[in-house]
User: Fold this.
Amino acid sequence: MDKGIWLFTTNGEWQQAEDPLAPHEHLDDWEEQRKAASYSSWTRFPQQDTTPLALEIYRGTDAGPGPLFLINVTTDSNYETVYAESVPALMEVLARWIPVVQGAAIGKLAGELDDKGVIPSVSRRLKTK
Assistant:
């Protein structure tokens, strides 16, 4: 195995496996590789590009030889890809990662509110009550 990926299995284990996109490396664009491997956009958490961290989920075909789900953990400048073998495996990955995404969103919002002076203002009001 030249290039391996991380696959979360239905048994709840992380394993290294062959990259389902590897046969399509001759295509220059990642989106084209993904489409050639039969992974279609399925959902994104959160839905809007307003958070510093997000999960993009792509679903393969049931008849395909590879993992059923491709998951990109994305930031505004990079992404890392992992795979989930099945729907139960995807649910487990999401259960672990959605709190991280939510925490990043709350942290960003708190920073924006602090920059605008909202948090110190609320803090002062709470102290006076």
In short: Residues 26 and 110 are 43 Å apart (CA to CA). DSSP finds three helices and six strands in the chain. The chain has a mean pLDDT of 87.
